[in-house]
Each structure stands twice: as structure tokens, then as C-alpha cells.
Design goal:
Two copies of one chain form a homodimer. The first copy, chain A, has nine helices and five strands. Chain A is of the alpha+beta class.
Chain lengths: ~230, ~230
């Protein structure tokens, strides 16, 4: 499907039909998700396709049994997992060493800056203080300093991936609904996620029922959101 | 362009050519951005296309003059602006009243839940406490309770829109680079954003130079990110 047609076709659907979603359709969308851009290419995201019937039932309950979850054929939990950098940063360093022309500053970034940013959690208050002190005198990246900042960064990247996933489903003729109305601590326990991980959203998938939306897509005055400065 | 081709074509580009980006190409991508799903359809996001030469120069400095910003033809600041709900929630209520069949619970949501969630900031500690107390006994949406939670929600939605924007540029043959390495407080002052707003990222736009990337796209072991549960 044409890209812009997929963007227009994507609507958040509250009710699905009984039509199953083929495995290859799901996999293709999951593969598209992890091609999204992400912070420092550290890829600290997770896409959990919950298939086990007992777990799926629990997950629907943790989405407050809303109809978008209850009637869904498939459910994917989109996770931000800041601790994944410990696995991916060494891979990134190995990868850079295979390339002929990489600026020294990029290698330095993965050698020094990434560990200082994603690790060294005990220094959080100092990082915050130092970043903001430097920032008084010259432009400086103030975030991420705290653990919450790190979660936020990975929630942002996870959302970029989630949008790829949802558009990929639309491009293949299936519908989705991103749900933030969910019980995050319970979902974290269900998936045995580490303490520092966050649930960005749960995405339900299926074929849109004829009454899957309440009306046309509502978008308000363009100049409230798009600004020419 | 085919959707999956656009996903594959999108790479984060660090160096651009001198080729200008036509206005209609930018506008088409901005229009695609605001078709993304977003929290409660409150659309509390902002896409600031910075065109004024003096402001653009400042913005490049606030992106620490990195080459992805320095060599860019255009720059768009992606903003999360939680206070926009005061403008959009009344519109959403008006819109729902024009529809023939909307469940009462949906109208109630925009009448009561949205103001309680996005407003009532003085009650933040109580909200946090009550949500988590209820959550002990049954699945309950614990967030957003605090101001930071609200910013996080809107950063997430802004990221969904940002991904639409970047893919739309790729689908039109242009390249982008999302930058989180920027000085958020300075950019907020430059754009005169309200106190509660956040800068999710700055996206640079242009035609990719032949040395715009250091190598092929690096994605690590699929099963670190995609999980079948």
C-alpha cells in the first residue's frame, strides 16, 4: 500500500471482527517496528506479542477489559527497557569496528558517553547538577540525567517503533488501537519485566468491525499544532 | 512510495546536500504527522517548522551544532504541550455531539475524566495516592497522575506524530534525523513555549549526502527486542 494511504487508513479501532490475523502479517509489522529510529541506536525497546491464552486473558483485564482489548485478535505490549543498553552497546561498538570510516568522536561516544549516560545511576543527582551548571554558560544536553529521564527517552523511542507497527498493520489491511489505559505495574509483573522497564502502551490488533469507530477522524484547527516560525 | 519501502528507506542522516526541500513536501509530511494516534485524541502536540534565519541559526546552536543540524535544509521542533487540552477538549466535546451514536461513557470521559486528568494539578499527590490505592485491589490506570506523567504521555504522542513525519519525508525521497542531543530549556525560550511544555526532539530535513551515514543500518539480534509470550 502507498505510504500516505496507510497513514490515512490507520484509525484507532475499538471493536474488531473474528477474523484471525495471519502470523506473517504480525511478524512483518514487528520487523517494521524495530526499523524505527531510536536513541543512540541502543534499541532498548521490547515488543511482546502475548499469545499464551491465560496470559492474554490477564492482559485484557490489565487493559481494564476495554472493548479494544476484549475484542482484539492479538495484543502487543510495547516496552521501554533502559537496561538493555548493557547488551546492545557492546554490539554497537563491534559493529562500528567493522566499518571503514567512522569518526573518532562516534567511537568515543559509544565507549564513554553511552556508559556514562545509561549507567552510573548512583551519580544521578551530580549528573543533573553538572549538566544544568554547564547549561548556564553554553548550549548543553540537560537530559537524560535521572532514571525517569532514561525511561522517558526509551518510551519515546518505543513510540517511534509502535507507530511503524501500527502503520504496517494498516498497510496490510488490519487495524490497531494503542492503549495507555492500562495497569502498568500488573503488566510488568505479567511479563516479568525488570524494575526499571516501563510499558509505553499496549496495541490491540484485528480486522476493524463496521462499528469499530464512532465517526470520522477528528482533527482540529491545523494552526493549533503546526507552526511556522 | 510503498509503505514498507518508505520504512526501509528511512535512515538517520548526519549530512545533507544543498538541495532545497519544497514547501509542499514539508507540508505534506506535517499533515501526515498530525494524523498519528494520540492520547485521548486531545492532540496536545506541536510541530514547529523554524524558517526565520536568525532563529534557525540559534536552533542549530541549541542542537550543539551537530552536523545533522548544521547541514540541514529545514528543522522541525517536535513539542509536547500538555496545556493544549484546554483548547482541544471543548472541540472534542462539540465533535462528539455531532455524531449520531456515541456511547454515554465516551461523553462522560471528555466531560469528567479528561479535565480531572489534565487539569486539577494541585491534587497531583492525591491523584497519585488514590490511583495506587485502588490499584492494590483491582487493575487500574496508575498514570498519568503527576505533571511529569502528563509530559511523558504527550512526549509519547508527539513521537508517534514525529515517526509519521519522518516516514512521510522518506516516502517523498527526502531524509531526516531525529535529534535528542539538544538544549531543551534554550529551545523552549526560543519558541516561547509554556512552562509545562517539553521538547520531544528536533528533526532535521534535507537530501541525504553520499556520506550521510557511516554504514548500513545496524539492527541486533531480533529476539532481544521481539518476544513471543
Amino acid at each position: 500500500m502507498d505510504f500516505f494511504d496507510a497513514v490515512k487508513a490507520r484509525r484507532s479501532i475499538r471493536k474488531y471482527t473474528d477474523k484471525p490475523v495471519p502470523r506473517e502479517v504480525m511478524d512483518r509489522a514487528l520487523d517494521a517496528a524495530i526499523l524505527a529510529p531510536n536513541s543512540s541506536n541502543i534499541q532498548a525497546w521490547g515488543f511482546y506479542w502475548v499469545q499464551d491464552p491465560a496470559k492474554k486473558k490477564k492482559l485484557v483485564e490489565h487493559c481494564m477489559s476495554q472493548s479494544a482489548a476484549r475484542t482484539a485478535q492479538e495484543l502487543v505490549v510495547v516496552v521501554a527497557n533502559p537496561s538493555l543498553w548493557r547488551k546492545t552497546n557492546p554490539e554497537m561498538k563491534k559493529f562500528l569496528n567493522t566499518l571503514p570510516k567512522v569518526p573518532t568522536i562516534v567511537k568515543l561516544y559509544y565507549d564513554k558517553v553511552v556508559p556514562a549516560t545509561y549507567g552510573w545511576k548512583i551519580f544521578t543527582p551530580f549528573k543533573w547538577l553538572i549538566y544544568n551548571l554547564i547549561g548556564i554558560f553554553k548550549p548543553f544536553m540537560r537530559r537524560p540525567a535521572t532514571c525517569r529521564d532514561l525511561q522517558e527517552v526509551w518510551i519515546k523511542s518505543a513510540a517511534l517503533g509502535a507507530e511503524n507497527f501500527m502503520l504496517a498493520m494498516a498497510a496490510q489491511g488490519f487495524a490497531t488501537c494503542p492503549m495507555e489505559g492500562m495497569d502498568e505495574p500488573r503488566i510488568k509483573r505479567l511479563l516479568r519485566l525488570p524494575w526499571s522497564a516501563r510499558v509505553a502502551m499496549v496495541i490491540s490488533v484485528g480486522e476493524a468491525a463496521s462499528n469499530g469507530t464512532w465517526g470520522p477522524q477528528a482533527r482540529f484547527q491545523r494552526d493549533w499544532f503546526i507552526h511556522y516560525v
